[in-house]
Amino acid sequence: MPIRTNRGRAAVYRRLWGWPMRSPRHLAVLVFVVAVLVVAAGIVVPQLTGADDRKQGAAPETTGTSTTTAPAAPGGTSSPPGNPSSSMQTRITAPTETPTSAPADPAALDVADSFGRAWVNHPQGMTNEQWRDNLRPFTQEEYLDTEMATVDPANIVATKVTGEPKSVESYTSSVKVRLPTDDGDLLITVIDTPDGWRVSVYEQVD
Question: Cα–chain-centroid distance for residue 164?
Fold first, then answer.
């Protein structure tokens, strides 16, 4: 009787192992099933072991409320809770440089006077380019080629300078000059540049 049982088991094993080899379709089904089992094992096993690890490594439960005190900022002032210490560092802003008062440089007054005399010099038919060429030696290039490029010399009523330039505000790096003409005064700002004193802006005033 035991001999028959062993033979029966052997026959069953042969059928099981021989089934995938009977056709490519059987083999493909077996490969698919094995792949599914491998993937399932890769997902389930880490979760089971991870859960145990978390239980073993969990921090002991504490009671009560803990208060975290931020480190004191320089000067003894503590930082407000919840803010990173780096955000509490005091940002030091460089102080704005204050212009230094000084007597008006005669050279600055001369440039303002020369600018004014070139400004009132606009014979009939003079183009804006010709007019600006006369002003170029006394004026900043950027201002001359932007703001003054839109001025029509024919619209300027003044034709002559009628007085001496006078400083109304003077610093080491800039001088504001008032220059009278036969059609009101010019208020001219002259600044110190690497090329010397140059007019940076002007306006007509009463």
Answer: 48
CATH architecture of the domain formed by 106-205? Roll (3.10)
Please, are residues 21 and 31 in contact by the beta-carbon 8 Å criterion? Answer: no
* pTM, two decimal places: 0.54
Burial of 188 from C-beta contacts in 10 A (0-12 / 13-18 / 19+): buried
- Alpha-carbon distance of 202 to 176, in angstroms, equals 9
pLDDT in tens, the chain (206 residues): 444 555 656 555 566 656 566 667 767 777 777 777 877 777 766 666 654 455 454 444 544 444 445 444 444 444 455 554 444 444 445 445 678 899 999 999 999 999 999 999 999 999 999 999 999 999 999 999 999 999 999 999 999 999 999 999 999 999 999 999 999 999 999 999 999 999 999 999 98
Between the CA of residue 157 and those of 50, 182, 196, what are the distances in Å? Answer: 91, 8, 30
Phi/psi-derived region of residue 25, left when phi > 0, alpha when psi is between -120 and 50, beta in every other case: alpha
Domain range summary for the chain, segments of one domain joined by +: 8-42, 106-205
Q: Are 168 and 177 in contact (CB under 8 A)?
A: yes
What is 138-176 written as a DSSP string?
GB-HHHHHTTGGG--GGG----SB-S--EEEEEBSSEEE
Report the Cα 84 to chain-centroid distance in Å: 23
